[in-house]
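Example 3.2
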Amino acid sequence: MNGAAGRLRATGRNALLPLLCLFTLLFWVAAPRAAEEPPGVAGLTRAEALRLGEQLYRKGLLPSGQPAQAIVQGDTEVEADMFSCESCHMRSGLGSYEGGVLTTPTNGAVLFKAQFNYRQPSPDQLKTIPAYMLPLYQAPPRRPAYTDTTLSVALRDGMDPNGRVLDEVMPRYLLAERDMAILVYYLKSLSPEYSPGVDQNTIRLATVVTDRVPAKEREAMLKPLEKYVRGRNSRAKTVESRAGYGFYAEWMDLIYRRLSLSVWELKGPPETWRSQLEEYYRKEPVFALIGGISHGEWRPVHEFGEEHRIPCLLPATDLPVISQSDWYTLYFSKGHYQEGEAAARFLAAGEQPDRDGELLQIFRDSAEGRASAAGFRESWQKLGRKAPAERMLSAGEAVTVELLEQATLEKRPAVLLLWTGPEALPLLEKVAALSGRPETIFLSASLLQDKIGALPEQLREKSYITYPYALPAGKGGAHRGNGAPLGRERRIAARMNSLGLLLTDSLMMMRGEFYRERFFEVIDMLQDRGHPYSAEFERYSFGPGQRYASKGCYVVQLSPGPGSELLQKSEWVIH
C-alpha cells in the first residue's frame, strides 16, 4: 500500500502497462470466488456503509462531508481530498504502476490474504536484470493477511503486519474509529468478484440500437462488431488446445474468454428507453455496452450506464452527454459541442471582438444546433467574454434571405456563427452584399457534410469551417479532396473498426482482472493512437477519467476555384 497523487501520471506509464499486468497476474490475481459479505458497521445499513466508504476512498471525504486529514512525507499535514486512496490505488482498488513506483492492490481479496515474495536475486544477478524488469524483483515483502486491526495500523501509521514501514508518500490518514471502520468495510467489499456479465468462459456484451436508425446505418454499426466477435471467438480452439501447457496454462486459464454480443433494440420515444434498458439488463446482465447508435440523443443510455455502473464504450453518436464527472461512458468526441468549443477558442486566440452585439449565433432548435451553440457559448464565457447574441430557428422554420438579412441588420455582428445545414449556403451571397455584413462567418463541417463545397466562392476568404476530423492528405498547406467528411455510413463503420482495435488492446491488458472499473482504468492507461487506429479523427488520447477520446478540431477554409481544397487555418484546437 504505497503511492500518492503527486507522483502519479508519469510519462512512462504506457510503456510499463504490460509489466504491471504481468506483475498483477503473477502476484495477486486468481479467478475470483463469490465473496462472503463482510460484517457490517454498527448502526449503518450495508448500502449506507458502502456509500460512505466509497466517498472516503474515492474523494477523501468523511461521513460529515468534510475532508479527512492525513500526513504525507513524514510531517506534512494535508487534506485527504487531495490524496484520496483512489488517486493511487485506482477506483477498482487493483493498483497501478507509474513513474517507477508500484501501488499495490487495496481490495479485500488481496489485503485479507497472505502474500509472498519473488525469489530475491543476489547483488551480482541484480546488475544483469533490465531496468524495466526490476519491479518484478522489488515486490512487497512476504506478509500475513491483514486483519481489521493491522489494516487500521497501516492506514494510520504506515506499518504493515510485519512491522515494515510503508513508503512515506503513502498518506497516514487521521481517522476516528468509526470512520476507520467504514473505510475498512469498504475495502473488504471492493472488487471481491468478477463484475456481472463474466463467467469462466464468456464475457457478455451488448450494443444498443434505436428503432428510428436507418437500416444502412444500423448495418454499418453492427457488421464490424459482429465480425470482430466472430474473429475473436474463432481463435478459441487454438487457445484452448494450448491451455494445458505449463506457464501458458496459468495465463490462459485467467485471461481468455469468448465474447457474446446481444443487440438491445429500443423502440418508441426516448423517454421510454430507460424502462426497456432495465428489462434487457434484468434478463441478461452484461459486462459492458459497446458501440451502439441512436437517432438523436444518447442521454437515456448514458444515464442508465452511470446508474448501474456499466461501461459504455464508444457509441456512434455526435450528441454525447457533456459532463466533467460521469465516468462510465467513453465517447469518440464531444461531437457538435466540440465544434462550438473550437470556434470559441480560435476566435479568442485571434482577439476577435467581444463587445455586445458583435457576435451572433443562428442555430436550429434541434439537438445538433443546440449542442453547437452551447459549445460556443459556454466556452466563450469561460474565456471571460460576454454571451453572444442568438437567434434560434424553430423546428419547421425555413432559413430565408429575409431572416438572415433581418438578423444581421438588427445585430450588425462582426462574426456570424451559422450552425445550420447546407440550406443556408446559397443565401449567404445576399448577406455578403449588405452594408452591415459580418466580417467573419463560421460554419460546421459536420452539419454541412458532403455539401461543404457549395460555399459560395466570394465568401470563402471570410468563412471559416470547424472540421473535427483528420485532414485529407495534401501538400503545401492545402488538403486535397472535396473537403467533405466521410459519408455517414462510412464514418460509423470506421468508428466501429476503431472500437474493435481498442477492445483487443484493453481485453489483453486486463490480464484476467474482469472488473468493470478495471476495464476503463486499463483504457485510461493506453497510449495515444493516430491513423489508422483513429481513421476518422486526427488521434485518440486517453487519460485517467478522460471520457472523450478525440479532443480537438481544426479550423479550415476552402480554397478558391474548383476542387474545394481545405486550407488549414489552425492547429488541432484542443478543448
